[in-house]
Each structure stands twice: as structure tokens, then as C-alpha cells.
Write a structure and sequence with these properties.
Layout (H helix, E strand, L loop, with lengths): L4 E6 L16 H12 L3 E6 L7 H4 L4 E5 L5 H12 L5 E4 L1 H5 L1 H4 L5 E3 L4 H13 L10 E4 L5 E3 L28 E4 L2 E2 L10 H5 L4 E2 L2 H14 L3 E4 L8 H13 L6 E5 L7 H9 L2 E9 L3 H6 L6 H13 L3 E8 L6 H13 L4 E6 L7 H8 L25 H15 L2 H9 L3 H32 L1
Parallel strand pairs: 1-2, 1-3, 3-4, 4-5, 8-11, 11-12, 12-13, 13-14, 14-15
Antiparallel strand pairs: 5-6, 6-7, 9-10
Helix pairs in contact: 8-9, 9-10, 13-15, 15-17, 16-17
Length: 460
């Protein structure tokens, strides 16, 4: 098989969310596309949340790779069926199919589980030259000539991230990084929150790009786009001394950029680190506070308490850093008061922006398997597994009450008072986020009201 043209595609999100206004290509598809381009292939990345794909290019490809998370799986499978009907082989990857490869093989020829860089290149060698044999490609799932499904042993994690090329975002169809430009400097996480699948995808041990490679990539990103740089690491401050070296390098090399990243609350324990974050141009820190309910923090295995959260907020505010707080509502220890008190907490401590996410049992997480075993999943319509729909039976709240009260809580935070306050202080970005959030919440509630009516008609 002669493979000269490859399309990579990210299926579109099923509905609005707070970041719909600033869609980002996920780095996996862009990195893989860069690698096969360097191998001599004509390749492009299509992100449905960014722009309508060029189906002429896709449907004339020799191979199509489709990346999917759980909430986009329904759409991804529909695309895969469409492509395969044309006789074009489809390979799927991403968190959802990593854990549900049997399901994915009903729609794809091949599934790459976990990190896909080495497995994809070996698969291309097999398709072109017949070797290595399929059974030797680690991390690969496929249907054999006998019709049976085979799942090879998992692949090894890439230890030297420096050997990966810098993702070439010019390969992304019609994407202009006018708002946010993503950069990755590490993989893995040792913490193991109950609702998170990062460990299963990328391992329990942190793996880092070198300081030198990170600075080169940041300098390149700053030179090609004035957009805010978003370091997508699950915890950019995971190794504080390394992080401080990077920040000192940004200052020493005069890399001028506005940037943001994700950290844990323990970042605030190192005031030198916080000062360097502020001095180097960091604008906003995205922090998974998850809950203000001590019992819920324990249930999530978060390894932090309420005092840690409060100390973190106050410390970051002292240095002028903005905070995007993420909370996950709907644990078995949460009740109506928990939801209402979370909004009060966010307002009281001056968190700049928030996400109130509904606890969602994603395949691959211990939460998912616990709820399957206890028969508490409401359904497996994956398009609703987007952290904005209730898909399980909570212990202390009805699913409908959790659904409605979570969105009411978000509406209370992104109030007209919030919008007008930021307009008055010329913080137009936050005013715009508030307006967009109000629109998204209203549209969701209208849609949900229709869903409730349909359910009630079905029951009557």
C-alpha cells in the first residue's frame, strides 16, 4: 500500500462550553501530523470545532486518523463509518478508544491505545511494507483476517520528550492562533484523582522536556504568534526547581509573551516560584480546586484540603495573578448546600473565572468502573459525557436537581453584576467571558428543558 496522503481529524464537540469561544487543536493530532509530514507525506489536521473540514482532501486520503475524547466519540464514529465506506483505512486514537478499543473497532480498522507516536509510525511501515507484523506493534488493537479482535500489549511511554518534533500548527486547517496558542512541556501525573484518566493514558511518573527544549519552543511560539500561550501540562509546576529554571530563562532571554497554565494548589507554597510566574508574564493559573467540601476532596483522592485552597488563592492574589477555578460537583458527599456554597466561596475569595463541572465517569477511570459495578450509570450516550450533563445517579441529589442547580450556580457567578463590574474596571476580557457564559448557560437550559419534556412524554 502506497501512503502519500494522510488526514488527521478531531471530531466536533456536541455542545457549547465555556471554552467554545476559544477552540484549540489538541496537540496529539498536530504532533502526529508533523511527524508524518517529516516522513514525506502530504498531511493536514482538521478540527471540527475550528472550521468545517475540507472533505475533498480527507476523502482522497490514503489513510485517515481520527482522535476522540469521550464526548466526541459518537461524532467520531460517524465520521469513521463515512470514511471506511469509501474504502479508506481508518485509525483511531485518544482517551476514549484507548479504554474502549473493542467498541471502536466496530468503526475503525485500527485503534492506537495510549501514546501514539511510535505505534503510528510502525503501523505505517506495516501498511507500506508488510512489516513489522501487526502483532508486534505495541499499543495497537485491530481486527484480524479471521474477524477476531486483537489487542497487543501496551506500548512503552516515551521517556525522552526532547526527541519529539515541535508541533507545526500551520498544518491545522484554517486555524489562526489569534487567542490561545498551546504548548506542552511534560506528560504524566502521580496524583490519581478518582475521576481523571491521565495516569492511565500517560503514566504515574512525570516526564519532562528539558529546560533548553522548552525555552526553544516558547521562543518559537512567541515569534510566530502574539496570542496568549497556554502551557497545557496537567501540572506545569510539578517539579518546582525545573519550572523556576524555565521562568528564569524566559526572563533572561527576554521572551515577551502573555501566558497561562495549569497548576495544583501547592504552587503557592513556594513564593519565589509564584513571583517568577508573575514576572515572566503569566496571566492566569488554571487550578483544579474540585470542591470546598472536605468529604468530597477526600472522596476524590485530591490530597489537598480547604485551607490549602484558601491559602493558594490569597497568595496568588498577592502577586497579581488571575485564577481560573475548576470545581467538580455531584460526588456522593455533595448536597444542594454544597453547590450553593461553592458559588458563594468563589465570589467571596475573588476567583476571576470558574468552571462548575458535573462529576462525569469517563471510561478508564476508577469512578467509571465503580459506577458500572453499582449499576448507577444513567446511560452510555457518550455525547452527554461532557461534564455538563448528569450521567450517573448521585447519592444525595436527584440527577435533575444536580443538573439544574449546577447551571444555576454558574449563572449566579456569571451575573450581570460580574459583567458590569469588569466593564467598569476595563477588564473587557472577563466581561466577554461572562457574556459568553450567560449565553451558553441559557442555551443549555433551553435544550435541557426540551430533553426533560421528551423524557416525561416517554414515561407517560
Amino acid at each position: 500500500m502506497n501512503i502519500k496522503k494522510i488526514s488527521f481529524l478531531e471530531a466536533g464537540s456536541p455542545g457549547l462550553h465555556i471554552f467554545s469561544k476559544f477552540p484549540l487543536p489538541r496537540l496529539g493530532a498536530v504532533l502526529l501530523s508533523t511527524m508524518v509530514r517529516n516522513r514525506g507525506c502530504n498531511t493536514r489536521v482538521f478540527v471540527e470545532d475550528v472550521a468545517e473540514p475540507d472533505w475533498t482532501f480527507i476523502e482522497s486520503s490514503d489513510l485517515v486518523g481520527i482522535s476522540t475524547i469521550t464526548s466526541t466519540a459518537v461524532r467520531a464514529y460517524a465520521i469513521a463509518d463515512r470514511i471506511r465506506a469509501l474504502g479508506i483505512p481508518v485509525v483511531m486514537g485518544g482517551p476514549h478508544v484507548t479504554f474502549l478499543a473493542e467498541e471502536a473497532l466496530e468503526h475503525a480498522d485500527f485503534v492506537i491505545r495510549g501514546e501514539g507516536e511510535a505505534s503510528l509510525l510502525e503501523l505505517l511501515e506495516y501498511l507500506e511494507k508488510g512489516k513489522p507484523v501487526l502483532s508486534d506493534i505495541k499499543g495497537l488493537s485491530y481486527r484480524g483476517k479471521d474477524g477476531k479482535k486483537y489487542h497487543n500489549p501496551p506500548g512503552e511511554f516515551i521517556q525522552d520528550l526532547d526527541r519529539l518534533p515541535e508541533p507545526d500548527f500551520s498544518l491545522v486547517h484554517k486555524w489562526k492562533p489569534s487567542n490561545i496558542y498551546p504548548v506542552s512541556t511534560s506528560r504524566g501525573c502521580p496524583y490519581g484523582c478518582k475521576f481523571c484518566s491521565v495516569i492511565q493514558m500517560f503514566g504515574r511518573k512525570y516526564r519532562f522536556k528539558s529546560v533548553e527544549a522548552t525555552l526553544r519552543e516558547l521562543k518559537q511560539a512567541a515569534s510566530v504568534s502574539k496570542a496568549t500561550k497556554f502551557i497545557v501540562d496537567d501540572n506545569f509546576a510539578a517539579e518546582p526547581e525545573r519550572t523556576k529554571e524555565i521562568l528564569r530563562g524566559i526572563l533572561a532571554e527576554k521572551i515577551k509573551m502573555c501566558w497561562s497554565t495549569q497548576v495544583r494548589v501547592d504552587v503557592a507554597r513556594d513564593r519565589e516560584l509564584v513571583r517568577l510566574l508573575a514576572d515572566s508574564g503569566c496571566h492566569t493559573l488554571y487550578i483544579g480546586f474540585e470542591s470546598i467540601n472536605p468529604a468530597t476532596l477526600q472522596a476524590y483522592n485530591k490530597k489537598q484540603d480547604l485551607e490549602d485552597i484558601i491559602t493558594c488563592i490569597r497568595t496568588l492574589k498577592d502577586y497579581g495573578l488571575h485564577i481560573h477555578g475548576m470545581f467538580v460537583l455531584g460526588a456522593d458527599t455533595d448536597n444542594l448546600d454544597t453547590i450553593q456554597q461553592t458559588t458563594d466561596f468563589a465570589n467571596q475569595y475573588g476567583i476571576d473565572t470558574i468552571q462548575f463541572l458535573i462529576l462525569t465517569p469517563l471510561p478508564g477511570t476508577s469512578l467509571f468502573y465503580d459506577l458500572v459495578e453499582s449499576q448507577r450509570l444513567l446511560h452510555t450516550d457518550w455525547s452527554k459525557y461532557d461534564a455538563h450533563h448528569v450521567v450517573h445517579k448521585p447519592a444525595l441529589l436527584s440527577p435533575v436537581l444536580l443538573q439544574i442547580e449546577t447551571f444555576k450556580a454558574m449563572a449566579r457567578f456569571y451575573s450581570w453584576k460580574y459583567i458590569l463590574r469588569h466593564l467598569a474596571t476595563l477588564h473587557f476580557r472577563y466581561a466577554a467571558i461572562g457574556l459568553f457564559a450567560k449565553t451558553a448557560i441559557r442555551k443549555f437550559m433551553e435544550t435541557y428543558a426540551a430533553e426533560l419534556q421528551t423524557l416525561q412524554l416517554q414515561k407517560s
